[in-house]
Amino acid sequence: MGGELIGLVAVILGMGVPLGALYTYYRVRKLRGEERLAAIARGVDIPMEPELNQAARSRRAGILLVSGALGYIATFGLIASIQADRDIWTAAALGIIPLAIGIGYFLDWSFIRRDARA
């Protein structure tokens, strides 16, 4: 029964976590909108929230992907060294994919910044 329970939990979490994230995103946006409408009804001047430019979005994505990939590689590397299992290093090597994408975002950010200065 242990294997069946693990599969059930994986399916429930695999579907439940994204649904929870979507609901949370929806509620935050709804509350912000209600807050803005209430402030406008009271006559308070509300400044517009600036959107991030392309360079800032690339930098943020690069930071998140590189740090996530390094954490993933370090976690599986630590598990592999504790378990003394070479096969776990294969899982750690999969962290190279988001690491490379994050480095690409950093390069994009630097190119955008360089083009803006020129």
Mean pLDDT across all amino acids? 85
Structural class: mainly alpha
Number of helices: 4
Query: Describe the biggest sheet?
Result: none
Total count of strands: 0
Q: What is the approximate shape?
A: flat
How would you sum up this structure, described in words?
- It is a single chain.
- The chain is mostly helical and 118 residues long.
- It is flat.
- Helices cover 84% and strands 0% of the residues.
- Helix 2 (54-83) packs antiparallel against helix 4 (96-117).
- The mean pLDDT is 85.
- The chain folds into two domains: 1-49, no CATH class; 52-118.
- The longest helix has 41 residues, at 2-42.
Concise structural overview:
The protein is mainly α and 118 residues long.
Helices and strands, with pairings:
Blueprint: H1 2-42, H2 54-83, H3 88-93, H4 96-117
What key phrases describe this protein's structure?
118 residues, mainly alpha, 2 domains, 4 helices, 84% helix, 0% strand, flat
